[in-house]
Specification:
Blueprint: E1 8-12, H1 17-28, E2 32-37, H2 42-47, E3 53-57, H3 65-79, E4 84-87, H4 102-131, E5 141-146, H5 159-179, E6 184-191, H6 200-204, H7 206-215, H8 224-235, E7 246-249
Parallel strand pairs: 1-2, 1-4, 2-3, 4-5, 5-6, 6-7
Helix pairs in contact: 1-8, 3-4, 4-5
Length: 256
């Protein structure tokens, strides 16, 4: 039996990179996967290799409670339940702090912090009022937020992103404090430098790429599948006593 048969896994930012790898991994483990993105999801569906994939198109930049409630309602309509929620979608904007545009600050905070919080809220509300009573006594709602190395560091030229990722680390701990006794696990993963479209420019720059690799004890860029493996652990019963944790999957970067 696959680990997540009869489970529904919801993954935001599912169209590429880390989100796509998470979808494919959960599908291989038997989950019904609801992938959420504003762009095309055909490639992600194909990578799920025949597993049940439910494409849900939504713009996650609104950052409002209503938008999150509407999205969760649509997921429940199509999939029937939520067992795993992975808040992966995010944006980054670069500008010197002294000139950082208000519009971009608001966009990053809405997408990276407000939307994940309200999705957590709506998923927990469904679990507490309906989902738990429809589930077996050992079942739990598993929420996984994608944090960042910049949940611990300040970075350069990315004040809004650093603020949002520090915030998602705090929200993860705060929700765990309130919900752990309700059979809800809220944890986060802080990815290191992962080989995705977002890091292509860094990887193409021989000076920056060498500086990054010299700092990573593993001496390689991470793969999206490395993060997906962490999600499988946090979504499984193996992590039932883990709550409010931020799992660093970074090749040893933060330990250097």
């Amino acid at each position: 039996m696959k680990r997540f048969e009869k489970k529904v896994a919801v993954v935001t930012g599912a169209s590429r990179g880390i989100g796509q790898a998470i979808c494919a991994t959960f599908a291989r483990e038997g989950a019904r996967v609801a992938g959420v993105a504003r762009s095309g999801l055909n490639e992600t569906s194909a990578k799920c290799n025949g597993g049940e994939f439910i494409p849900i198109h939504a713009d996650l930049s609104a950052g409002t409670k209503k938008a999150a409630a509407d999205l969760v309602a649509e997921i429940l309509k199509q999939a029937g339940r939520v067992d795993i929620l992975v808040n992966n979608a995010g944006v980054i904007r670069r500008s010197p702090a002294v000139d950082f545009p208000e519009k971009e600050w608001d966009e990053v905070l809405r997408t990276n912090l407000s939307t994940p919080f309200f999705l957590c809220q709506e998923a927990a509300k469904w679990w507490l009022t309906q989902g738990r009573e429809k589930s077996s006594p050992e079942s739990r709602l598993k929420i996984i937020n994608i944090a960042s190395l910049l949940s611990f560091q300040g970075g350069i030229l990315v004040p809004a992103y650093a603020a949002s990722k520090h915030g998602i680390a705090g929200v993860t701990k705060a929700l765990a404090n309130e919900w752990a006794r309700e059979r809800i696990n809220v944890n986060a993963i802080a990815p290191g430098y992962i080989a995705t479209d977002n890091t292509q420019a860094l990887r193409d720059d021989p000076v920056r790429s060498k500086a990054i690799l010299d700092r990573i004890p593993e001496a390689r860029w991470g793969r999206p599948e490395d993060i997906a493996g962490g999600c499988v652990f946090l979504a499984s019963s193996d992590s039932d006593y883990l709550n409010g944790a931020i799992l660093n999957i970074d090749g040893g970067w933060l330990g250097r």
